[in-house]
Amino acid sequence: MNSGPLNEEELEWLDEALMNHGSENAVLDISELDGMFTAILSGPTKLPSSVWMTALWGGEQQIPLWPSDVDENRFNDLIFQHLNDTAERLATAPDQFEPLFGFSTIDDEDYEVVEDWCFGYLRGVALDDWSGLPDSLQPSLDAIAVHGDEEQFAKLEKMTPDEYVLAQQAIRPAALKLYEYWTAKRAPE
Known about the structure:
Helices cover 59% and strands 5% of the residues. It is mainly alpha-helical. Strand 1 (102-106) and strand 2 (109-113) form a beta hairpin.
């Protein structure tokens, strides 16, 4: 298996594989997968891949039948390469950690789309017990949840454009704070 970040072709292949093989309950793009992986790596316990892989597809019954072993192996190699690269950045080079947000073009202007990443992050949070998160760090989780929890979208609609940009910019530092907190609390391996 390769190491380091995925290249553009690999990211596009993964994105397409997630969309083509996923169900309505599955992770459907690379941005959502990146958010989920960030939460899994940042959580209170180290989850086995069998837990998050099942969740990635939306349940045991939704795990796809691949057209070939080559496609299945490529998918698995690429997601583990991405997971390992994200883990490495979070652990040793947090200044190089950048969430994989999407982009949308409206009227020839590009806009950053953070919602898929935040949905994925909350999906990862749901796989573990985050109830021990101290009140002082709840604003960090809220900074992500405001973009990834449909019940909180009303807050986004009330924001000015400047407030919305600031809310987007709060996601990365919030993810890093949560990672630092939980990994410091974990028992040594």
